[in-house]
Fold:
Amino acid sequence: MTAIAVSGPAESSWRDGKKYLWPLGLLVPMIPWIAWGLAAATGLGVAWFAGPILVFGIFPFFDWAIGKDSDNPPDSVLAFLESQRYYRWCTYLYLPLQYAGLVTAAWIWSTGRLDTVDAIGLAVSVGTVGGIGINTAHELGHKKDDLERWLSKVALAQTLYGHFYIEHNRGHHVRVATPEDPASSRLGESFYRFWPRSVAGSFRSGWHLEKARLERSDRRPWTLRNDVLNAWAMSVAVFAALIAVFGVRIVPYLLIQAVFGFSLLEVVNYLEHYGLLRQKNGDRYERCAPRHSWNSNNIASNVLLYHLQRHSDHHANPTRRYQALRHFDDAPELPGGYATMIVLAYVPPLWRKVMDPKVVAHFDGDVRLANLQPRKREKLIAKYGATAGARSGARA
Structure:
């Protein structure tokens, strides 16, 4: 570990314990080659599914085995910590590896050497890279640097999710933990009901946000100045180039990897704000606070996802770089890391059993203060009621 050079005597002893762990995140974009290597070494077709096996099986184990870290950098070192270019390169390097893996996979698909099941396995492994690449895009897209914003769109192009660049920053961050936000899941809402609502809602929101921005400048939306259109154009260019080089037989696999990739983002969206609700002061929602995001300090997921699990600080300080994000004692804590929780999210009965009581407890037993799935509102109120711990002024 390397000490961060600071001026204060109290902070001079602080060390970034994760500094040399962050490059481990680059194992993710190497998944296609890991799959290829394992398949060649073992002769087992299941090796082509290395992506989901790692994400849904191996990573949750490491979350459990390695444990948690709630260490925070002192406020006095934040500016210095954020200025270190070392941390930026840990994210920049994801992109060339991401696209090298996609090109390699396209070549393998084009050769016809894999049977259909193995080719689908490779597609979902490549989609794993693209899906976690959306998190890299998320980190870069929040920054003020034009190059980093451009790189964010490049990372999104693989999964056809360029509108995320607009919708997340100007839509989700404004409406987070409210019923109006398509990317905030509701208590009683399964992932399978959330997925179409979030996918379609984010698409519509991104387009309307950008259309409104251009109209304020008396411009029409059908222009490459539209950041949704130019982001989608990158996807068209990437897909067209790959099809031109490797042929139309790769098209089904390109689509599979894209859908799998953005679905991986959506399951993360699902767990980040499940059931949490900002209360209203009159007609306006209260300001977003740490209590409006689920957090986790599991080290394995935090290293692989660039501290995305410190989500409360991210919403409070969207431009803050990942290495400087902080843990809050008063933020609600997930019972496991993201790698574990996304597995639970795919099994609604298990998810509800684990998470619904935690949401109710978060609101001191008054389920009426949660972000409720409308069609299950009465059922949830009847089940959990408004206990003696309920706060006054609860919504009817």
